[in-house]
Amino acid sequence: MLRIAIADDHQLFRKSLKLLIDSFGEMQVVLEAANGKELLENLNTVEVDILLLDLQMPTMNGFQTIPAINKAYPEIKILVLTSLSEKETIKAILGLEVQGYFTKDADPNELKEAILKLHQHGFYLEKKLASIIETQIENQADALVFSDREKEIVRLILKEYSGKEIGNELNISPRTVEKHKDNLMAKTSSKNFIGVVVYVFTQGVIPIEELKI
Prior knowledge:
By secondary structure, the protein is of the alpha/beta class. Helix content is 49%, strand content 14%. Strands 2-1-3-4-5-6 form a six-stranded parallel β-sheet, sandwiched between helices. β3, α3 and β4 (77-82) form a beta-alpha-beta unit. α8 packs across α9.
């Protein structure tokens, strides 16, 4: 059973989200908070696997909360809930050390899949938000060059292949797969693999159509 925390200042939205998540059967909301301060004050009372975090909250917003969570509870995966699409905000979001992004106006039925994929694969990027990012962020003149093997690794990860399955497909060991993933994160200056995913399609390395979500 996945343990979920929700931090959002809109009580009606938060309560509705809790009811929806609790209905999924494979996860349960174990903590609610109206802001980052309240969240941090109560996280030591319960174990949490995934945090659904709003960015715009009073007292302590999502941008302030994320580094505090990463420092005190690095094992918690963060799924940002956002309704923001402004260019500068998108750039700020991409600089956050989180594992997933989900827009608030998405189909509620997609949320279960988003949470499960975040848990299973370590990252999640809703395709609608990916499209917004793709249209709003300019390609960099000094974009990195990726080898064919690196592109194939990313493609197979986007197809949700496990490390063992990627190794079998490419005739390499799972350890070598992990080495490639580490190298890709270092190459793109990413703290986690979602940073690699965002980079490869915003820079045109891999078409957004290959983002399997």
